[in-house]
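Weekly puzzle thread! Below is a chain. First person to post its structure in token form gets bragging rights.
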Amino acid sequence: MNVWLKRVLFSLVVALLLAVVGLAIFLLTFNPNAYKSRLEALVFERTARTLTIGGDISLSLFPRIGLSVSDVALSNRDAKDTFVSIDSARFAVAIWPLLSNQLVVDHVAVTGLKAYVVRDAKGRFNFSDLLDAEGVSTTGVAPAPMAAAAAVAAPGAGAGSDFNIDIAGLELKEGRVQYVDLHDGLSTTLEQIEANTGRVTYDQPFDASLKAVITGNDPVQHAQLQAQALLRLNPRGQGYLAQKINVQLSGRLGNLDQSQATLRGNLAYDGKARHFSADNLELALSGNIVGAHPIQGLKASLTAAQLRLDQSNTALKINKLALRAVGQDGKRALDLALDAPALAISPESAQADPVTGTLKWTGDDTLAVSLGLEGLSGNANEWQFRTASLDGGLTQGDRLLRLQLTSPLDWNTSLRKGSLSAIKGDMGVRDRALPSGSYEFPMIGNVHLDLVQDLLSADLNAVIDGGQAAFKSQTTKLATPQPRTQFTLNTEKLDLNRWLPAPPAAAAAKSGDEGKEADKDQEKAADASDKPADAAAQAPPAPAPIDLSFLQGLDVEGDVRIGDLRVRDVQLKSVAAQAKVQQGSLTVSKLSANLYEGTLAGQFSAAADQTFGLKLNLDKIAVAPLIQAALGRNVLSGRGAAQIDLRAQGATMDALQRALAGRVAVQVRDGAVHGVDASRTLGDVSAALGNVLKGRLDALASPFDKRRSTAFSTLDARLDLKDGQGTLSKVSVVSDLVRVSEGKPARIDVPGRSLDLVLQAQVAARLPKGLDAALTPLLGATIPIRIAGAWDHPEYEVDWSGIRNPSIQRALKSGLGELLKGKDLIEQALPSPDSDSEAAGEAPKNAAAPASGADPVERIGKALKGLLGQ
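Winning reply:
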């Protein structure tokens, strides 16, 4: 017995020694690097990706299987460019737990992880083939970030085994992930990634933290990211839970600069049940929005006590959701609020407390909009709100524009269509400048959305100014960044005066009349101490910017037909135009209208870079009613035509005027200049000139009289513009008595609203019978008349020394020039507030009959300038 025991023990010792020696020989002779090529070939065979191991592989077998590797890279599928690489990695696996189908990893340390994630134009990621091999799909409703995150937990999700993983901890340093989205045009990079976890076990909670720097140029990004949460992962059951979330982000993200963002709450997702939930969710955001529409001091928050989305059962539940946002847009303050106290939609029922929202934009103008949804009923497949309402108002000084609309709102989930089926409402304006003080018109219609047919259509009808108006539109390509809209607008009558602000002159006159007595009292109280404030108040305001950036990204095309259009006092009939907005440019083409017995045709363009263009052709226009309507004065009549070709670019009105270029040409035939009778005036001038030479100083009546007129056969003028400066390159007025042509200078300053030009007036060579004797002294005389100064009050001066006429030259030598000094030669020749009474034969107020000794030279100057029709 002892012998056999000794033999057994001896055999075991020998076997153990042989095992130890064999293990030692194996450890001394085994080289894991010899398997690199096999491992690389195996990876390529299964994934069509190239695995490269540039560093050595170190392996230990007892008491734990330890592995360390460096300089590892994996390429994209069927490509040489790198998908992911690691500078170094090490981990150790316990041997005995493997026998019980458990993987226990002591610690995982990864340094220098670099990943290059790309989403192509079709929405597929460059790792989609790896997930598809495991039965995981990245297509469908999952957004890009969620699909990218799914790659972390996907391996083993479909293995269908009881194999468990237990990792004591994971540490990642110096990581970098670059993400390029060709589908949405986004590029961003996470740099300096540091991640740490606690003990990671399937379906057990563990702590996780992450730090990273977010950078990018499309859009501009530079922000610090810090995140902590208690995670629970169950890839086998497709369950993911994040509790005690605390995410903080600071820096710049796109157009959001100096931002501070915080996310707190609990999130959960069940992939098998397709169920998402959020509890005690708090999202806070602050910063400045830069770019085309800057907002300073933005503060926004979103809170929700409970959110439930069950896609498999088509159920939604919201409890105490609130959105708030405030900010400053230049001089305007923004205030936004949205509240959904309770909403529950299930396959059996749908109900909700009233949903309300308000938007207020306060500044020089105030925009206030309120939205409401009430009376939810139906079920998840087909639900409807009894009333959807909109109440909006825009206040501009004393003017209020208001829009009120109500309609039922319904949606069919299975058919993916919905509508505002019975829109009713009113649109109006309230302004003391309007004759009735207010104006409004009713409208009815409907709006339908069909996602299956990819169509949004609208059909609205209204009664405007007693005429019918109809608007129809269809919008397609709804899922694209640039939907396409086609529309038609037909209206019998449209008076824009009801909607446009009152002209400055009219508004000033009205406010002046209303506050005249108050102003008188305040003038006495306002002393020298108020002068600084007055000076500040009179400082010119900053020019209002012209921003057409909203044209970018629009694709709109339509036809406009207006039977009777009124703009101020100008009336156009049978107006037609085609409007198109594409590639950041608005074009109004095929513009046509009937205008005062003639026609108007042309086109207009405006682009997002503040470039404007206008081309108009007017033909056979009755000049008298057009000028009376546009200027409020009857100074010219006849049948006229005009050609207008203007272009400019600028971000303000002043910049546009300084860049104005093009030309304006006018032709009038068989017309008359009203207010001046050239034959009578020239006769009086000739007689007065003769009297001056004879030493007689007789009185001369004012040449302006509304009842008088001077007929002409042709009137032609052309103005050439460049950089806001105009040159009157052609003036030609031909009548029986006088010829008028351009002289030098001939400059018109558009931004400066001033002019400096010379007109040459010459008595006709062939005088009508009855006037030849009276006007003989002026034959051959060319009278230069200079007009200079501001547009609203120019100064007139006759260049007497430039007149080549013997009679006038003799008069100048006799001292006529000295007599002319300091004389106002035009004031009485222009229309005055008393012109109507004078025209009616009444004597003007405070006017005395001219004395025989009155200065006739002043009358001569006024008479000569009266030839211009002033």
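Puzzle host: Confirmed. Bonus trivia for everyone else. The mean pLDDT is 78.
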